[in-house]
Amino acid sequence: MKGLYDVTQAEKEVMEKLWDQQEAIKQSQLLALFEADGKEWKRQTLNTFLSRLEDKGLVTREHRMVKAVFSRDEYNYMQMKAAVDSMYEGRLSNFVAAFAKKSAINKNEAEELIKILENY
Hints:
Elements: H1 9-21, E1 25-26, H2 27-36, H3 43-55, E2 59-62, E3 65-68, H4 72-87, H5 92-103, H6 107-118
């Protein structure tokens, strides 16, 4: 499994657009989506973000088409797994205990977690 992906806010915005598309999209179409949202990025700006994401193994580009390598859920899982591995000795129970201690989980959330765990 890959490690934690360090992405900038702008790179995350690019990923969000790609995930919303679910399939490969032309780079020009992707740029148009940002323009529709009021982003005044130049073609080269988007190309720079895509190059960085490609170097990180998060996107692929072929014949001016670009797509996300991982789904949003896969990406989020890998990020969470890397964080649990590095900060909580790879133990989800340590993560949940630390989170519950600082976040004051309410009774409904605790019951929901118990149900999830019982189903596994």
